[in-house]
Design a protein that fits this description.
Layout: H1 2-16, H2 22-29, H3 41-48, H4 53-66, H5 72-81, H6 83-95, H7 97-105, H8 118-121, H9 125-132, H10 138-157, H11 163-188, H12 190-195, E1 196-202, H13 204-207, E2 217-225, H14 231-250, E3 261-262, E4 275-276, H15 278-287, H16 291-297, E5 301-305, H17 307-321, H18 330-343, H19 361-375, H20 387-396, H21 402-426, H22 437-446, H23 453-485, H24 496-505, H25 511-522, H26 527-544, H27 549-563, H28 567-575, H29 577-587, H30 592-599, H31 618-631, H32 635-662, H33 673-704, E6 710-716, H34 718-721, E7 731-739, H35 745-763, E8 774-775, E9 788-790, H36 791-800, H37 804-809, E10 814-818, H38 820-834, H39 842-858, H40 877-891, H41 903-912, H42 918-942, H43 953-962, H44 970-991
Parallel strand pairs: 2-3, 2-4, 7-8, 7-9
Antiparallel strand pairs: 1-2, 1-5, 6-7, 6-10
Helix pairs in contact: 1-2, 2-4, 4-6, 4-7, 5-6, 6-10, 9-11, 10-11, 11-14, 15-17, 19-20, 19-23, 20-21, 21-23, 22-23, 23-24, 23-25, 23-26, 24-25, 25-27, 26-27, 26-28, 26-29, 27-29, 28-29, 29-32, 30-32, 31-32, 31-33, 32-33, 33-35, 33-42, 40-41, 41-42, 42-43, 42-44
């Protein structure tokens, strides 16, 4: 009965020691090889202190079983008697399955961990070179490499060295390995070795002395001829040596591989020659290199081969690196580099990415390197290859706040330690945090988190990633504020020149003016200035993410000047997370929204309300406008109130459109451009209808009291009737009236004319609000005909004189204001005209086609590019709308779904009715949506309407950002527009012209 008891006791003790599978562990402890130590409490305690006791015990049994009989007692005695060995060996076995495999294959290598002297605690390059000196072939090199790696891992998991020292030792080991590989390659081809000089330049983390356990080792090769040899042949010989070196390190043997040697950072990448002369390198860098290549050269370090040639290379490229920030396209290149990395991460992995994801290692490295490039031009103390050393130098020089640098240092070290432990387990190249519970438990314990390792690890990781995300932008901008605010005496600050350089590098075209704005906003000891100093580091980053950071900052100063004394304004931006970012996006996206906001800055409050950017319904708008008109004492005051509502609602619509198009940190951009177009079209159309309704009420009240002598209705036509208005659209209308009973027709007509004139006057009064232009040119007889007709007059005209184009114009007629019953009767009158029974005849179809062809040739503005004109150009709005309207006039009599004033609805109905294939309907829809969005973008950016893309570079870039194109990709935008509209025109030629 004692055996079960003992087993139970052992089971419980193993469980308390951290074993997750005590039964399996008990069986392993019963292994014959552990007979002499299985009951020793020292062993069990030591196993329990490892990252993964189960893994450590399994590795120990495998190592013991691999020992020669005479060696086993030595291993076990040393294990129990020598704490340094016990901690190192079991620590490695509990953290790395791959190194346990190595020890099982090479059971004498445990002796590497026995010595515990000063040189062993912190070996340098020379010690690693001695460790690899006896390796004369790739297999021996792998064994020796793993033996050295074993010692680094042991010091790492025991805490003898910190994460920075671990990375430096790994880089030294890589340097020694490259030298050994070149020695082996040279011995295999002595003629090549004699014919050339070859220098190996380490790049990336190896060059920066901050390597991972498993990483590509990035290199560049520089070759030259030895005395008396031909340069061309020497480069060929050097290329063969370099290729052999790469194979020695990269190829898989019976002992596995070491790591891939990657030479793709060389000039022209994988398309360029593997080896170039120094002169060839310089010629490329001086003429062709891109900004990212100079950023990569920050890490360049000569590590192997000819030391003189390597030193010459470093000396030659160093000045080029520190001139990179002066390049004309530096800002655009930097912004593209920032986005490219995250955009290429698979969506399923982005939340697990330690290196490339938001708040990851790359964020820190990129920020530090960018600041080095900007300020290293004039400060040689920043010329460091190592991220943490460079961060320390930036803080010491005042380029980064000391507190920010300290937080970033701690976060970077934690994330690098996580990366090391993840890679150490199987010695595989990965930057993904595991998902398996056991893997997370081992990872957490290896980081010293023992109580609830999985939960504690997740919490710590999120905290450090959040620090990186938060500081990534503040790192650039907080020192700028310190430079202008000058609150703390004796603190090292950016000089005005350095501050200007930084702003310029981040996209600000006028750094001196930007600094004046910052000084005005952030200087002083007031609460207002203190809050601004909290907000501005983040706001400046959001401005810099736009096409016109200067305008964003200027507009922010204007709004802050207008509202700075209002208690709720800064509190809103500080406390409502979305409000500050929303405001930054709106203020830097163009002229229209800021202009609307400046006229009534209190509309900022809309940006902090989760529902504040949703367009209001027509009923709600109409009710508010009519109530405001009813309270006014005179028509001018009434319409001023109505136009004020319109201005506020236009701002609401524009702000919502901008934010949905750009996206924010917490809310991605809207992926359906059609939904954005529909939302804007409905909102602006409803707002215009409500404003016209208010002006009509004010005009009637001013002269006739509550009742006009004639019933009066406003009919929207064109984009207004289709509820497809853009920000810059006029309101196309028809006016219809009908004399009230007992009222003379002439009196009624005069009243109708007078009310129209008064409405137009009121809507165009010079005020701070944008005017609303009413266009009645689509009425019968055009500008030659009367401005308003009775319903009977319309009936007589349409019965006798109506032309085909007038029937076509009526396709989008819809009552928008005035007498609803009269408006409905007008629609009854025109339905037979716009939806003719049995469809259009052949003559009418030919007439429509002729009119369209004439319009294409006569109305296109002189000098306009027809491939980029959104209204009249190839595949633009006119092409799509006329094609859809022709289908409506031919088939709506028989297809009720086509009886709509909305282009997209009619197109969908035509597809549903089998009149157009799905692919062609989609092509037309995409072209119409894109052209509409371009027109909206032009108005948002320039503050005035336009049918073509802007010619000014910043405005064009802003249009691109609105449409979802990253900085520097306006060429792609124009190409995509031309491709989309070209495809649409092909469909138009088929469906409309029948060609």
């Amino acid at each position: 009965m004692t055996v079960p008891g003992r087993r139970s006791s052992t089971f419980i003790r193993l469980l308390r020691s951290g074993f997750t599978d005590p039964s399996a562990a008990a069986r392993l402890l019963e292994s014959p090889v552990l007979a002499s130590v299985r009951t020793d409490p020292v062993l069990l305690d030591a196993l329990g202190a490892t990252a993964d006791p189960d893994l450590a015990l399994l590795g120990l049994v495998r190592l013991a079983e691999a020992q020669q009989p005479e060696e086993l007692p030595v291993l076990l005695d040393t294990l129990l008697s020598a704490k340094p060995l016990r901690d190192r060996l079991l620590g490695v076995l509990g953290a790395s399955e791959a190194l346990a495999d190595h020890l099982a294959r090479h059971p004498r290598d445990w002796h590497t961990l026995v010595t515990y002297e000063a040189a062993d605690l912190h070996p340098g390059l020379a010690e690693f070179e001695r460790g690899l000196a006896d390796a004369h072939d790739p297999v021996a090199l792998r064994i020796a490499y793993r033996r050295c790696l074993l010692s680094i891992a042991a010091r790492d998991v025991c805490g003898t060295i910190d994460v920075a020292e671990t990375a430096a030792e790994l880089a030294d080991l890589a340097t020694a390995t490259l030298r050994a590989a070149l020695r082996i390659a040279s011995a295999a081809a002595p003629e090549d070795a004699a014919a050339c000089r070859l220098a190996v330049i380490a790049m990336g983390k190896c060059g920066g002395n901050e390597l991972n356990y498993v990483s590509d080792v990035d290199v560049i090769f520089v070759g030259d001829a030895t005395r008396g040899n031909d340069e061309g042949k020497a480069v060929q010989a050097a290329t063969r040596l370099a290729s052999h070196l790469m194979r020695i390190c990269s190829e898989t043997t019976v002992e596995g591989t070491i790591w891939p040697v990657d030479a793709n950072l060389r000039p022209e990448g994988r398309n360029g020659p593997l080896v170039r002369t120094l002169a060839s390198h310089l010629a490329y860098y001086q003429r062709w290199a891109k900004t990212w290549e100079f950023q990569a050269l920050l890490k360049a370090r000569a590590v192997a081969g000819d030391p003189e040639l390597g030193a010459q290379y470093i000396e030659a490229i160093t000045p080029l690196v520190w001139q990179a920030a002066e390049r004309e396209n530096f800002v655009a290149d930097v912004q593209k580099m920032r986005r490219r990395v995250v955009d290429n991460i698979p969506a399923a992995q982005v939340e697990r990415e330690l290196k490339l994801g938001p708040g990851g290692l790359r964020d820190v490295e990129f920020a530090v390197q960018l600041l080095q490039l900007v300020h290293g031009r004039s400060d040689a103390t920043l010329h460091s290859r190592t991220t943490l050393d460079a961060l320390h130098a930036l803080a010491a020089g005042g380029y980064v706040g000391r507190a920010d640098a300290a937080q970033l240092h701690d976060a970077y070290c934690f994330l690098r330690a996580m990366e090391h432990r993840i890679q150490l387990y199987r010695l595989r190249r990965t930057h993904l945090v595991p998902e398996d519970e056991n893997d997370l438990r081992r990872l957490g314990r290896s980081m010293g988190l023992r109580t609830e390792p999985v939960a504690e690890l997740g919490k710590a990781w999120r905290r450090h990633a959040s620090v990186v995300r938060r500081l990534h932008e503040k790192l650039f901008y907080r020192p700028l504020l310190d430079a202008v605010a000058q609150l703390t005496p004796g603190e090292t600050r950016l000089s005005p020149r350095a501050a200007g350089q930084r702003l310029e590098a981040l996209g600000y075209a006028d750094p001196s003016t930007a600094l004046r704005h910052l000084e005005a906003l952030a200087s002083g000891v007031s609460r207002k200035a203190a809050i601004q100093r909290t907000l501005l580091p983040v706001m400046l980053g959001w401005f810099a993410d736009s096409a016109d950071p200067d305008a964003g900052l200027l507009n922010f100063r204007k709004v802050s000047d207008a509202l700075g004394r209002t208690p709720w304004y800064l509190r809103l931006l500080r406390d409502e997370g979305a409000a500050a970012e929303n405001l930054a996006r709106v203020l830097s996206a163009g002229r229209l929204a800021p202009d609307l906001l400046m006229r009534a800055p209190e509309a900022v409050a809309l940006l902090g309300d989760p529902e504040g950017l949703q367009p209001r319904t027509h009923e709600a708008l109409e009710q508010e406008v009519l109530a405001a008109v009813g309270r006014a004492e005179d028509p001018e005051t009434a319409v001023t109130a109505a136009r004020g509502v319109r201005r506020r609602e236009l701002f609401r619509t524009a702000a919502g459109d901008i934010i949905a198009s750009y996206g924010t940190e917490d809310s991605p951009a809207e992926t359906d451009p059609g939904a954005l177009v529909d939302r804007v079209g409905r909102a602006v159309s409803d707002l215009t209808a409500a404003t016209i309704g208010g002006a009509l009420r004010a005009a009637v009240r001013s002269h006739w009291g509550d009742t006009l002598p004639t019933r009066f209705a406003v009919i929207g036509v064109g984009r207004f009737g289709g509820r497809e208005l853009g920000y810059g659209s006029d309101a196309d209308v028809l006016f219809v009236h009908e004399p009230r009973e007992g009222v003379d027709e002439q009196e009624a007509a005069k009243a109708a004319q007078a009310v129209i004139a008064e409405m137009r006057r009121l809507l165009q009064l010079p005020t701070a609000d944008p005017p609303l232009l009413i266009d009645a040119d689509l009425r019968p007889e055009g500008r030659s005909g009367p401005l308003v007709r009775t319903l009977a007059s319309y009936a007589a005209y349409y019965r006798r004189w109506s032309l085909t184009w007038e029937s076509q114009a009526l396709l989008r007629a819809e009552p928008v204001a005035g007498d609803a019953e009269l408006g409905a009767r007008f629609i009854e009158l025109i339905d037979p005209l716009r939806y003719p029974a049995e469809g259009l005849g052949d003559n009418a179809v030919r007439e429509i086609r002729r009119l369209k062809a004439r319009m294409e040739t006569e109305r296109m503005p002189r000098g306009a590019d027809p491939t980029l004109h959104t209204k009249l150009g190839r595949g633009g709005l006119s092409d799509v709308e006329w094609t859809v309207q022709l289908m409506q006039m031919r088939h709506a009599w028989d297809e009720p779904g086509l009886r709509t004033t909305r282009t997209r609805e009619a197109l969908a109905a035509a597809h549903a009715a089998g009149l157009i294939p799905a692919d062609e309907a989609q092509i037309l829809d995409e072209a119409w949506v894109l052209a509409t969005r371009v027109r909206n973008a032009v108005m948002l950016v320039r503050g005035r309407a336009g049918d073509t893309f802007p010619s000014e570079a910043r405005e064009l870039a802003a249009v691109g950002r609105y449409l979802g194109y990253a900085e520097g990709t306006v060429g792609d935008m124009l190409d995509d527009y031309r491709r989309t509209t070209r495809r649409a025109r092909a469909v138009v030629d088929d469906l409309f012209y029948g060609s």
